[in-house]
Specification:
This protein is an all-alpha fold. Helix content is 72%, strand content 0%.
Length: 334
Amino acid sequence: VQIDWQRVLDDFHGPWAFGQGAFYRPFVTLVMACAYWLADGGEWGFHTGSIRLLAAAVFALARMFGELFGARGAWFGGFLFAAHPANHEPICWPCTCADFLVLIAAATACTSFVRHLRDGRRRDLRLTMGLAVLAMLSKETGVLLAVWLLLLDLGVRGRGVPFASRLRLHLRLVPLWALYLGWRWWILDSAVGERGPLPWTELLALWPWLQAVKLQACVLPMGSRMPAATPFVMVALALWLLAGSVVRENRRWLWVALSWLVVSLLPVQWHVVLPNLGRSRYVLTGLTGFVLLAAAVAGWPRAPQWFRLAGTALLAAAVACLATGTRTLQQAYE
């Protein structure tokens, strides 16, 4: 099969091929072109490639949780993210694989950054910056790493680090975010995405409701033929997380996860979400905040045995319910 590789490379200095001039996602174009080429023009290449990207996203997030909270946190967070129905749309709609690509790069960047915080190796910081570039070339939400890395810094090192030292570290990353936003503004006349048609007054009035809808989709997902027990299981899991996160050892991660969740939902634009409230990909980045809290509570080193057993049982029940919903939603798309 013939691929116009020059057209693929053109996306690195122009608007995204699938974004009507409003987005800059050249790495997605490159990945899709490679998938099409490897499949010799077969449509199966996009679908199987998206499934592999989901597996890579689960692995990258589990690796990050393992670096932060140990093996138990990695398994708990990885299984919960893998089973969530929010993953079905990027699998069934090829051009939305950007949501997986940005998560893979961002989660791996976070893992390298945590290692840098603990060991101080410059190699890990350079790797973090390179992966951050890859995340921003995949989707605009990659720029959220500017906040995510700060939150991880507060979670890992706490408030005992001198302010000047922390400031110097994050100032070293500022040129990266500034160059990305400046480059986007130069080639697309927009720093963060397409401009909405609604006035700011209406946007601000709609914001709380839309955030509540997206938060509900993270914690209490709905779907066709979702088991009747799903709401009860997810509420029980949320109560278990709340009980485990209010203890002194985990309280810091509760605030980190809540801030992560709120910040991750901010970029979802009102005029995009209003007609597409059923689109699960809009909650994927926010879902990482919810799963981060779950991994932190699951990795609590001093948790009572009964608490751990209850968490394991709730995870098994949640995975069984959510996986059924995911499978049904995939069939609906196909």
